Amino acid sequence: MVVQQRLYGCAIGAVIGDALGMPLEFGPPSPEGQFVRQMRAGRLPAGSFTDDTEMALALAESLADQRPLDPVDLTKRFVAWRETNPPDIGIHTRSILGRIAQGESWREVEDQFLKTGSDNAGNGSVMRCWPVAVAWRDHQEELIQDSQLQSRVTHAHPDCLAASVFTNLAISQFIEGNSIDSGLAYALSHTPALSKDFKAVINSAPRRSRSELKNSGWVRHTIESAVWALLNFNSFAETVIQVVNLGNDADTAGTVVGAMAGAYYGLQSIPNDWLNELQGQWPVGSTSTWSAKEICSLVDQLI
After folding, report:
1. In the chain, how many H helices and how many E strands?
2. What percent of the chain stands above pLDDT 70?
3. Which residues pair with 281 in a beta bridge?
4. CA distances to 3, 59, 76, 302 from 68, in Å
5. What residue spans define the domains of the chain?
6. Among candidates 126, 145, 88, which has minimal Cα distance to 260?
7. What is the separation of C-alpha 278 from the centre of its chain, rounded to a whole number of angstroms?
């Protein structure tokens, strides 16, 4: 039962972080003493999840249908989601999925991306990667492979692959009951192809001051913010509140740290008022409204 609560906590924590950060996205850091601590309306109603969660749900449904992950099935789901014209979709993700929609395969797009030497290392794949950790929490080889694969279809930069693996390895460690210190250390030492520079960012993150954290759409900044909060605060709520109030890419950073903190602290640690306000439409444009109940049901399918 404890493990199940952590699995639910991972998924719900990710969605909570997304919704809590939504109204703070693209804004400045909140001043000390003026942190947002409740769900607020922004470009969407209070408690609404965004593209971060929508892409994760598409990934989760793909994994629930086929395992190991089928990248062709996943890209079809992503393209179908893009065609609903979601209110928030990253420029890079929109472009990549647009090319696939026009007939290119995901492998062709990936090859072209790598040949051009693109330095686009955005956080668009780490924000959605948590379903892989839920599905493969006790199968490390498959967890690593599918974490990388789900990233490759839109974000082929080595940092994006490494960040997805690092995040999911840490989540799997937390789900099994390991401490935050040991879980992060394990993920750091077992993530393949993690560059020396990226490793240095992770190692120095806990010692950063709040004013030093950029919390941008760069995947290194997202991981830095998450690690900083996990190691400096001691509850689910405070960990997520600290990250989303860094502003800038608040919903994505909130999603990533929410998944990690939820996996460690468990569903029971998430404030009830946040859970009660959680809402979203899935699929986008349908009449199907999702709340915590539906997300937990999807987790049940994954496990």
Report:
1. 15, 2
2. 99
3. 289
4. 22, 12, 16, 12
5. 2-302
6. 126
7. 17
Topology adopted by domain 2-302 = ADP-ribosylglycohydrolase fold (1.10.4080)
Query: What Cα–Cα distance (Å) separates residue 254 from each residue in 53, 89, 222, 251, 301?
Result: 11, 16, 9, 5, 24
Q: Average pLDDT, stretch 62-73?
A: 97
Reported as a single tens digit per residue, the pLDDT across 23-63 is: 999 999 999 999 999 999 999 999 999 999 999 999 999 99
Distance of alpha carbon 137 from alpha carbon 191, whole angstroms: 15
Q: What is the C-alpha separation between 128 and 56, in angstroms, rounded?
A: 4
Q: Write the pLDDT tens digit of every residue in 100-126.
A: 999 999 999 989 888 886 778 999 999
Q: Is 287 exposed, middle or buried (0-12, 13-18, 19+ CB in 10 A)?
A: exposed
The string of pLDDT tens digits covering residues 138-168 is 999 999 999 999 999 999 999 999 999 999 9
Query: Between β-strands 280-281 and 289-290, what pairing exists: parallel, antiparallel or unpaired?
Result: antiparallel
| Matching residue, tokens 């941008």 | 216
> In degrees to the nearest 10, what's the CA dihedral of 80, 43, 288, 237?
110
**Which of helix, strand or coil describes residue 98?**
helix
Q: How far apart are CA 271 and CA 20, in angstroms?
A: 12
pLDDT bucket at 86, cuts 50 / 70 / 90: confident
- Is 1's pLDDT higher than 80? no
- The pLDDT assigned to 119 comes to 76
Helix (H), strand (E) at residue 289: strand 289-290
Q: How far apart are CA 86 and CA 215, in angstroms?
A: 23
The residue whose two tokens read 């179908």 is 80
> CA dihedral in degrees (161, 265, 136, 75; nearest 10)?
-50
